[in-house]
Amino acid sequence: MFKSMQRLLEPPTIEQCRIELAGKAVDYTLKRSGKRRRSIGLSIDERGLTVSMPLRGSEKWLHSVLQQKAQWIVDKLAEWEARKPATPLWVDGQFIKFMGEPLTLRVVPSLFDAPPLLRGRQLFVHVTDAAGQQVVEQAVARWYQREAELLFRQRVAYYAPLLNVTPSVVALSAARTQWGSCTARGTVRLNWHLIKLPLRLIDYVVVHELAHLVEMNHSPAFWQVVARACPDYQRRRNELRRRETVTG
């Protein structure tokens, strides 16, 4: 009895592994846990394949399950890879996203650096002749962050009264896996990369995080709060999930 309880309390172990499946080398995260797990679970998202299994499960059992699901795993990983947006080249004429619409990046040689300037559907970035793509990327990132901060504050000011909440702080986030977060102290953080998405999805994340000031969970009561300001939240949530690489 004591040994059984001890196994349940053992902390999970996490390791990075590789296996050949359907002729392809596949990296995956292996999580072993003794907390009542009796089967092997597979999940695939933007981070890749994660395998969860009992702490004492055998390697033979693990490899057998992975080989049985080999084609499914390879196909799903390929689907996620296809969803990833192409990494932009920070050069003149390149397209970048702003509030769901494409902008043409105009890189203008100049004697001095200047903040990017939006004119119609073109973003002008003035850089010195010696500046490389990294300088252009950093300039655009700062512009994105400035625009995001202004827009997010406007959207929070609009939706907070509808939900009868008052966040103590609204700040930008650069989290890799979350569009937003909210703390019990009332701090709402919104990922600045949201500024690249359509306004309807930005609004959904704003409402989602503000709703946590009423319900700090994802219970039915929480979604009722979200629905007050965003009745079609499920459609927006699904659209965001199809796009996401990084909601709280």
Describe this structure in words.
This protein is α/β, with parallel strands linked by helices and about 250 residues long. It has 3 domains: about 1-85, no CATH class; about 95-145, no CATH class; about 145-245, Metalloproteases ("zincins"), catalytic domain (Zincin-like, 2-Layer Sandwich), CATH 3.30.2010.10. About 40% of the residues lie in helices and about 30% in strands. It has a 4-stranded mixed sheet with strand order 1-2-4-3, with helices on one face.
Q: What is the mean pLDDT?
A: 87
Count of individual domains: 3
- Which architecture name of the largest domain does CATH use? 2-Layer Sandwich
Looking at CATH, the homologous superfamily of the largest domain is Metalloproteases ("zincins"), catalytic domain
Computed structural class: alpha/beta
Strand order of the largest sheet: 1-2-4-3
Tell me about the largest β-sheet. Answer: 4 strands, mixed
Global Rg: 23 Å
Run of helices and strands: HEEEEHHEEEEHEEEHHH
Describe the structure concisely:
By secondary structure, this protein is of the alpha/beta class.
